[in-house]
# Entry
Amino acid sequence: MIVVEDVHKRYQTDHGPGKWVLQGVSFTIPRNLSVGLIGANGAGKSTLLQIIGGVDHPNKGRVERHCRVSWPMGFGGGLQGSLTGRQNAKFVCRVHGHEDDIPERIAFIQGFAEIGEAFDQPVKTYSSGMKSRLQFGLSLAFDFDVYISDEVTSTGDAAFKSKASAAFKKLADHASMIMVSHSDGTLKQFCSAGIWIHDGKAHWFDQIDDALKAYKSTLPK
Amino acid sequence: MPITHTLSTQAAPQSGGSARAGRSHLEITLAVWKALFLREALGRLFSARASWFWLLAEPVFNVAYMLVIFSVIRVMHVGGIATLVWLMVGMLAFFMFKRTGTQVQNAISANQTLFTYRQVKPVDTLLVRAGLEGLLMIIVASILLVGAALFGYSVVPADPLAVLEAFFGLWLVGLGFGLVTSVLIELVPELGRVLKLVMMPLYILSGVIIPLSAVPQPYRDWLLLNPVAHGLEAARLGFAPYYHAVAELSVAYIYQFALVSIFLGLALHRRFAMRLVTK
# Structure
């Protein structure tokens, strides 16, 4: 269960504090429920994911994580460009305290990512799709209760998307996902509930379709 | 630049959430340090073609061209010890401070992507970098001294503990310098340029290529406010007890300076922890 309580967030700019990105966001995500975050560009979806993932901190309010939450995957974050895919994978294993079974986890990640020889090339030479494959494989190599994905599936090809979705369905009995995506198909494929972020507030919908409808109703026709 | 504006200082919301339940804070930190150390070592030694060679070549070339200049003006001894040994010990001691300082200072920007994993804190990357740089400098210094020994110079320190004390002190000063400046640079980016300008004359002001005992008072006292100058003289004195070091030499000053700057740096990191990971 993840409890988000009255979260306020704004960033520092060069000219003082910026405008509020999130203003009093509160919701509770129950166990085993996958949620999609919907909203316009710049609405604060990624910011919220970062805060839920514990990488960023709210100016006000709090987040309680009563389960194991993954790091936020997305935009090549968490991958060191000068290191190879394998070296990055080892780094993540070590950080998460899995020093003893690195070879098995590396084998899993390599198998899932299916990026061939590029696994031993520096990550900065990767395409965005290859980074997504690696990131997704990395996070699946660990047992999290909640996986956080920021558009990570959007750059993958069809084969990768169906593989990711299948891998996810297998985890569905004990794990869930919080994801940002601009593709309706992806959201419907992975998520059942939805959160629509609008004007710094979060609106909860039990059905992802309703959230999409609410979001689209605000779009200029 | 509104550096006085403060973010909310309440305690970070924290609960559970580690990948493997039941790991203690110490276990997590040690795992992160190990992972970072290996990652930093790879980057430092193998990121570019023969990066490891340049680690060694930089002090060698610095010593070599200064040695050429000193030979041309026929300076065979400085303060009673051979010019090469004087130069080399001073240079290595200076690099111990400078490399540690700059590596630590730049640790945050070099590891920005890794803060995606909430187990990794900015200060971890700094401490690990300092450790790695200290270790590398000991290896570099050993190789250079063995090299000089092959050329027939006497490079066995008369008082090895005093040499280690001086180098360790300089390493601590470098760590403290890096800890403080890394935060200041995040808060006021322009400071990065200023610090680069300051680093250049520091080479001369610390007495790497001029003996500070030759500087008249009151200027010598001013130069000796710089702890690095003390460190260099202390290291040389450890190599040869008959070396004419500056009379005001104080090893205690190096350690006091280091202690204060490390404390200040850690305090700044604690205070601005959030500012460092969020952009």
Remarks:
- The longest helix of chain A spans residues 158-171.
- The helical segments of chain A are 45-52, 85-95, 102-113, 128-140, 158-171, 184-190, 208-217.
- Chain A touches chain B through 46 residues (CB under 8 Å).
- The mean pLDDT of chain A is 85.
